[in-house]
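User: Hey, my collaborator sent me this sequence without any context and asked if I could get a structure. I don't really work with proteins. Can you help?
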Amino acid sequence: MLKYDMPLYRPPSEGNNLIIQATLGCSFNQCSFCSMYKTKDYQARPLDDVFADIDRAARVWPEAHRIFLADGDALTLPMDSLRAILDKLQDSFPNLNRVSAYATPGNILKKKPEELKELAQRKMPLFYVGIESGAPVMLKKITKGASQKGIADALIKARKAGLKISATVILGLGGQKYWEDHIDGTVELLSQAPVTYLSTLQLYLEEIAYDEFMTKFGEPFEPQEDMAILKELERLLQNIKPPAPVIFRSNHASNALALAGNLPKDQDRLVKQVQGAMAGTNAIRPSYLRGL
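Assistant: No problem. I've predicted the 3D structure and written it out in structure-token form, which is a compact way to encode the shape of the chain:
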């Protein structure tokens, strides 16, 4: 249908939705663990090209009702461009009910509160934000380009503007030495800043990112085995006190254990499921079935 500039990524929950590339690559592209856009230079696509893709997609899939704006962080676009794209999408897809995109904390902080509210009103109410960790030591080691306070401020700002945030945390990111700092800092962050959805991934370093991750980590990195990863998940779920209800998932293909529930309502059940996996009574996903 469309000729995409590859590689192309989208969140698992957007798998059945139309993807339109508004930008190529990632405007930051310095996170040490991330291999997604290492082969691309960031650029905002010309609006005429984006509109041409929208026209082509509308001819083939006019009933599309959910659309994901790729690549890495379409929210970095200026508001005039976002308005034009959203208006074009609404004109082209009569059943449209939601547009979403990846976003960085910096993207959110750079937008004015009234601009974020406008995006929500224009049917762009959902953004996917990679938190990765809330621990200051880890945010530096992975060159996230954001502080714990900056991430919290962005999440709070988004919620006040009426936006929904789907946040991800990477288990295993601190290795054997920093796992407690990693989880405790993440708990601290997520207990003060509201998100609508929270998902976990397990650290998986592709070859293209491996050397950069190890270099930026700044010291020998000893990866966590599955039982240690489950201990991280247990500690996260035991201690998080979200300021608003959160839909929790660990069903990404990288995870050893798939979980689903709502926090804080299902907190005890989720913890018991993790403990069951640690005890061997609940099966974990075989390593050969995992991936990004």
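In plain terms: The chain has one domain: 12-289. You can pass these tokens on to your collaborator as they are.
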